[in-house]
Specification:
Bound molecules: zinc ion
Low-confidence stretches: 1-56, 307-316
Strand order of the largest sheet: 2-3-1-5-4
Shape: flat
Order of helices and strands: HHHEHEEHEEEHEEHEEH
Oligomer: single chain
Length: about 325
């Protein structure tokens, strides 16, 4: 059994050298950034925010940019207008919420899969809202429920060629991406991204996909789990800007000193006092959080699937 993606952990290894503090920060940022549609928060903060978290959409937002300023209208009014226009043009109800984000861009969240997939169709959007021309930025990454992994995908095969072949049969297939191990060896597994949850579900139910008349096993795809870490004190319980620690701690020795590549102190994790860098995948604290997140992740996924089933039945 291959658990693709779930073991992709800490970007730091013992002995890592960074050319500059910026490179260090860049890697650290990359490491603690959430990807995909479901965002995870663990620790004290998660408890305070449980309520708002649970109301958060499982889908990444569509961003609406306006050509003209929208200062006189509330986000609520714009959302209502979009729902009405959509209904008039497509005779379809969309289930969305939205709010203004950065730079007065309107963020629109789908509340269920069918709406999300309707919004993915760029041609369906109106050209204008509140008499202003609009530009739509589609989400760059779909929730991981829209992907699956294809096994026994020969290392010599070209993903692009197979993609063209498969697209003829699987209309919502968008992309094939080969998976790599942590040390960047290519695997005989590809991730297949779709724009229809139904198509993914059907393939998972069958359990295989045909490539050149040969059956290949398909499995659920789980996005790599990213674990939040404070860049100042390396706690996993809060983001950097909430740190109580005003001095920089060391990722290697856990002591207080300025960032220093040359630290030769004994390796000691600040969180568990073990013999590894803070945030390393072997840290029991990291493993505990990983387990909690993956449990939560499975629950979310199950809820999403149940919601989808119910909705399909309502349509039939
Ligand atoms: Zn901190
Ligand atoms: Zn140190
Ligand atoms: Zn540790």
């Amino acid at each position: 059994e291959t658990n693709v993606g779930t073991n992709n952990d800490c970007v730091f290894k013992v002995g890592d050298v960074f050319k500059s503090f910026n490179e260090f920060k860049y890697k650290l940022n990359d490491y603690s950034t959430n990807i995909g549609g479901i965002s995870h928060r663990i620790g004290k903060q998660a408890n305070n925010q449980r309520k708002s978290q649970s109301q958060k959409s499982d889908f990444p937002p569509f961003i609406v940019k306006f050509k003209e300023d929208q200062q006189e209208l509330t986000d609520r009014k714009l959302i209502d207008e979009l729902i009405t226009v959509w209904k008039n043009q497509h005779n379809k109800d969309i289930n969305i919420t939205g709010r203004f984000g950065d730079k007065q861009w309107l963020l629109i969240f789908a509340n269920e899969p069918q709406t999300f997939e309707d919004l993915l169709n760029a041609q369906s959007w109106p050209d204008k809202l509140n008499n202003s021309e609009i530009l739509i930025k589609q989400p760059r990454q779909l929730p991981s429920t829209y992907s699956l992994v294809i096994q026994q995908f020969h290392k010599n095969w070209k993903e692009k060629e197979v993609l063209e072949e498969l697209k003829l049969q699987y209309l919502s297939l968008k992309n094939l991406t080969r998976m790599f191990t942590k040390d960047e060896t290519s695997m005989n597994i590809v991730r297949a991204d779709f724009s229809s949850l139904r198509e993914v579900q059907d393939l998972l139910a069958i359990g295989s996909i045909s490539i050149s008349h040969l059956k290949h096993k398909v499995k659920q795809y789980y996005a790599p789990i990213r674990i939040q870490k404070c860049m100042k004190c390396f706690s996993h319980a809060h983001p950097t800007n909430n740190s109580q620690q005003s001095h920089q701690m060391c990722i290697r020795c856990g002591q207080q000193h300025a960032f220093n590549n040359e630290c030769k102190n004994e390796i000691k994790c600040i969180n568990c006092h073990g013999e590894h860098y803070a945030g390393h995948s072997s840290c029991p604290k990291v493993q505990k959080i990983r387990k909690e997140i993956s449990e939560k992740y499975k629950t979310n996924r199950a809820e999403l699937m149940v919601g989808f089933e119910q909705q399909q039945q309502e349509h039939n």
